[in-house]
Write a structure and sequence with these properties.
81 residues, 2 domains, elongated
Length: 81
């Protein structure tokens, strides 16, 4: 029951029906206690690639980072005095 209008109608009916409020609160507490299923990393990657099929494997950010690391490794350093 994610719709607030439906929620309000069910709540009003639960108040009118004898014992309905207890049943309503019991059902509400069990529905809130359930945790949503979180996807595994493989499922998340598969879903992402379905939404963005042309996603570049070698992104500009990754390429730039590798270039900066390569320059930092090969750059001559000043000798400390």
């Amino acid at each position: 029951m994610t719709n607030p209008i439906v929620h309000a109608i069910v709540f009003i009916l639960a108040i009118i029906i004898p014992g309905g409020l207890l049943l309503y609160l019991a059902l509400r507490s069990t529905s809130l206690s359930r945790e949503p299923k979180s996807p595994t990393p493989d499922e998340a990657l598969k879903a992402f690639l379905q939404v963005y099929p042309k996603y570049p494997k070698d992104s500009l950010r990754a390429r730039n980072r590798l270039n900066r690391l390569k320059v930092a490794r090969t750059k001559r350093r000043k000798k400390s005095q």
